[in-house]
Amino acid sequence: MKFSDFIFNYRSCLSSLIKQQKYFSLFKRLFLLPYKYLISIFRDIFLNKNIDKIDFKNNSLDEYFKYFDCDKSSLVHGYNNFYDDEFKDFQKSKINILEFGIHFGASQAAFSKYFSDSIIIGVDKNPYFKKFFSKNIRSLYCDVSDKYSLHLLGEYLKEDIDIIIDDASHIPDHQLKTFSQMFKILKKKGIYVIEELDIFQSFPESYNKNLDNSKSEIRNFLYQVKDKSPDIERTVKNKEVLSLVENIEWVKILRGNYVVNNKNVSEIAFIKKK
């Protein structure tokens, strides 16, 4: 992690906590975040894998996903063919990709090898713990439940973003906030991706137990844009999201392989900006 990115992460996290008046968490992170940053440097030196030293020869995106144990692969969600179809025109270009949801960094590592001349920016509430590093991968802080935190991230990013992927909490309200804030910074002709649009239905213990498809506003919005619904202005209440419709060229909603509790939970949306 670049020191300038750590400074942003530190300030952004503390600013967000001050705005939310979470002073106990603020006090803890004053000291915890520098410690996590130092530990991340230690891990990169002694434990993490430098993927720039791994030599691949014309591998498919699915093979990269499998190598780094990423759940986008054909072994889990089965998003590999969808990503191949939508991203093939970008592969040889020098682009910037922003992905929400780092976890161990498997997805960023796979995309870094597939887009070998591009910058991959991973975003997470905890951007310090990952298993891979590269000169082409950055790690930034953002709390996707907080619009102010998303705003700070958008202000900090100086790059033109060609692709944005939301693989973070999968909570509909978070997906809605992230889309409404970050679609604005996406380049013209860029692609915005939201993974697991309806996974909340299969994990009621982790999400709102009373939430159904009709109450997932982002999912409802995307289906109406895809279907060119004449009722969209009446049924979608979020005016900030509605204002983005005129900048959307098309929406594709597809389904992969992963089944939980006898239900396929691998619904993924691709949104093309005009």
Radius of gyration computed on alpha carbons:
18 Å
Instruction: State which percent range the strand residues make up.
Output: 15-25%
Helix residue percentage? 25-40%
Major sheet details: 7 strands, mixed
Uncertain stretches of 5 or more adjacent residues: none
- In N-to-C order, the SSE pattern is HHEHHEHEEEHEHEHHHEEEE
**Helix/strand/pairing class, anyone?**
alpha/beta
- Which geometry do the CA atoms define? globular
CATH topology: Rossmann fold
**What is the CATH C-level name?**
Alpha Beta
Structure annotation, total helices: 10
CATH superfamily: Vaccinia Virus protein VP39
Strand arrangement across the biggest beta sheet? 5-3-2-6-7-11-8
Termini Cα gap: 33 Å
Counting structural domains, the number is: 1
Q: Oligomeric form of this entry?
A: single chain
Number of strands: 11
CATH architecture: 3-Layer(aba) Sandwich
Mean pLDDT: 92
Please give a structural write-up.
The structure is a single chain. By secondary structure, the protein is an alpha/beta fold. It has a single domain, classed as Rossmann fold, CATH 3.40.50. The chain has ten helices and eleven strands. It has helices at 3-19, 23-46, 61-67, 80-87, 106-114, 147-156, 172-182, 217-226, 232-235, 239-242; strands at 49-50, 96-100, 119-124, 132-133, 137-141, 161-166, 186-195, 248-255, 259-260, 263-264, 267-273. A seven-stranded mixed beta sheet has the order 5-3-2-6-7-11-8, with helices on both faces. Helix 1 (3-19) packs antiparallel against helix 2 and helix 3 (61-67) packs antiparallel against helix 5. It is globular, with a radius of gyration of 18 Å. It starts with a helix and ends with a strand. The mean pLDDT is 92.
